[in-house]
Amino acid sequence: MTSTETANQARSPRKISWDVIRVLAVYSVVVQHITHQSPINHPELGPYPFVLPLQFGASTLLVISAYFVCVTVRRGNTRQWLWKKLTRLLPAYLVAVVVTYAVSRAVAPMFGWYLPTPTDLVANLFMVQAWSPDFHWVDASYWTLPVQVMSFVAAALLWPRGWGRGAKLPVLLWGLVIAPLVIRFLWRGDDAQQWVISLFDGLALHRVALFGVGAAIWLWTQGRFSGRHLAVYAVAALVAQDAHAYFADTPSTIAFGVVVALIIAAAGGRDWDFPVLRPLAPVIRWLGGISFGVYLVHQELGFVLARFLLDAGVGAWGRLVLCSVMAVLLGWVVTKAVENPAHRWLTTVWPARWARLKATARATGEALRDLPQVPQPQVASSGASLRAELSPRMSHGSTAAADPRTSTDPVLAAAMAKSQLR
């Protein structure tokens, strides 16, 4: 670990409040997808003892991600920051896509479900699922991953160019709320041309205001947004999100608003090290630490497990519990076997090896330049020496005019042949 990273950790110790919000967000997604989404995608999997229809967990994760982008992007080298972000995200995602695709291909004929194609696999690996109706999501919960990658790249491009200072960032944040709404209701209707739909959905313009909320909260903690400005912006972003869904899921928007208030409290207040939470802190931190892995494996693989359990006669409560446990266990495996090792190797081991290879190549080049020059034998000029050597022989007219291939003088023939070869 570098001294800069150590100093950053000393300045920003890990707060339990952030882990509480992460756990609330991720595991609400798990329960919502098991109890509400699975009977929609596969009607035979329901009903469950209760239904959690509120969809706010994934949006919460994007707001938290945007907030910490603003916190960390200004520290050190921006390219290194982007590399660390991508190496934390992509290896686990790519493995999860391949595993989910393979499992779905294996069980689809048995269950009569959609059979994903190799084209779907490639589209999901390159995160272009939303750009064409010919592509299908291997797991529909993966919609957050392309959005996060785009936000990381945008932050890495904009921050060094001064977009984090002055009035540029607040103007950009309001544009993230207003511009997508204008596009949605002027051009991106259900009857819009496909290229408009692909551009709007591929860039996730209906979700970009979520990153604006996270950035606005950071601006507020820096004293660059007043409390009133932050409140107005947050309400505007919530209304915009509800409008993108044509106000068909307002309860989810209200629930999301409550969680946004919790995020503001976590960012601007003291840590939630309350007596009631203190005994649970190790479990909360552990669940928060594997939350990304849980998110990657819970939905489609959970549907598959639920179908096997249903066919085996397991009841609704049993399916709910076992699918939740599977998400936690597989999430832990992904975190320990893929996410953490890949991130560590790509950010420490591989850069160190690459630096050693460059240093070795540089040292070798310098050593070769410092070697003493070996004197080369002096070679006489081909013109003068050859004429001097052959002039006695060329004084004989018949021999001088002779073709070297037919000349009877072996020395002259060899010399002329050598000259022609040059």
Describe this structure in words.
The protein is mostly helical and 422 residues long. The protein has one domain (12-349). The chain contains 18 helices and no strands. It has helices at residues 3-11, 16-41, 57-72, 78-111, 118-125, 144-158, 168-186, 194-202, 208-221, 227-244, 250-268, 281-289, 291-297, 300-311, 316-370, 382-394, 397-400, 410-421. The longest helix is centred in the last third of the chain and has 55 residues, at 316-370. This is Acyltransferase.
Shape: globular
Give the number of DSSP strands: 0
Low-confidence stretches: 1-11, 390-408, 410-422
Number of helical regions: 18
Could you tell me the mean pLDDT?
86
Task: Provide the gyration radius in Å.
Answer: 34 Å
Keywords:
422 residues, Acyltransferase, disordered N terminus, 71% helix, globular, acyltransferase, acyltransferase activity, transferring groups other than amino-acyl groups, transmembrane, Acyl_transf_3_dom, disordered C terminus, 0% strand
Quick gist of this model?
With 422 residues, the chain is mainly alpha-helical. Helix content is 71%, strand content 0%.
Strand and helix layout:
Elements: H1 3-11, H2 16-41, H3 57-72, H4 78-111, H5 118-125, H6 144-158, H7 168-186, H8 194-202, H9 208-221, H10 227-244, H11 250-268, H12 281-289, H13 291-297, H14 300-311, H15 316-370, H16 382-394, H17 397-400, H18 410-421
